Structure formats: C-alpha cells, structure tokens
Amino acid sequence: MSPELRRMYGFYRWFFMPSAQGPAAVVSRFGDTCMGSVDALGLRPLWFGESDYDYFLSSEKGVVDLQNTIHDPRPLAPGEKIAVVSGPGKRGEVVDHCALQERLLRLFQQGR
User: pTM to 2 decimals?
Assistant: First the structure.
C-alpha cells in the first residue's frame, strides 16, 4: 500500500474510531454510483453479480434468478469494495477495488 493511501486510511480510521468496526456488508448509493463494501474480516457476505440486464449487489446469492446471470455471482473478499457507475439509458461501469482506492485517494488529496 502506498504511503499516500496509508495516510488516507489512517485519517478515516481516526475519524470513525471504533464505531466503524464489526461485521457489516454495506451497500450505498449516491447519484449515479452504487457501492458495496465488506468488513475487514468478511463476516457478513456481500455478493456481486451480473445479470442479462444489469449488475447487482446483495446479501444473498440468489436474489436474481441464476438463469438470468451471465456469470455465477461471487462474494466480495474481506475488506473489498466495489462500485458501479451508471446513468439513465446506459449500462453500468464496474470500478474494482484498486481503481476505487485510486479514485478515492485523488478526491481525498483534493480535500473533497
């Protein structure tokens, strides 16, 4: 992990303190971005999959009929984050964990 990324994580660890610990799978949405994250130990599952018509994040593998999935849904790894950026009339773009860290670091360095 780069020193810059380590500093960013250190800041947020200090900011949230112990309240950010514990088993959790979180899905959030803001504007055209949907993001999922799993706790550092992976105690709560979060599945990511692609169907015929879109991507999905869910605590259960079978939330979408598996006949409609392109690939078998996969569980996110412990501490993994993933995002899907979409918009009206367009297919979502998947942003994997490493690319998401780079984007967040740029925003953090800009003071956002």
Answer: 0.79
Contact of 76 with 38, CB cutoff 8 Å: yes
6 in a domain, yes or no?
no
Would you call 72 helix, strand, or coil by DSSP? coil
The DSSP symbol for 7 reads: H
| Residues of the chain by 3-state class (helix, strand, coil), percent to 5 | 35, 35, 35
Tell me what the mean pLDDT of segment 65-80 comes to. 89
Residue pLDDT, tens place only, 37-50: 999 889 999 999 99
Q: Give the rounded distance of the alpha carbon of 87 from its chain centre.
A: 18
Residue 89 within any structural domain of the chain? yes
Q: What whole-number distance in Å separates Cα of residue 112 and Cα of residue 105?
A: 10
Residues forming beta bridges with residue 69, ordered by sequence position: 51
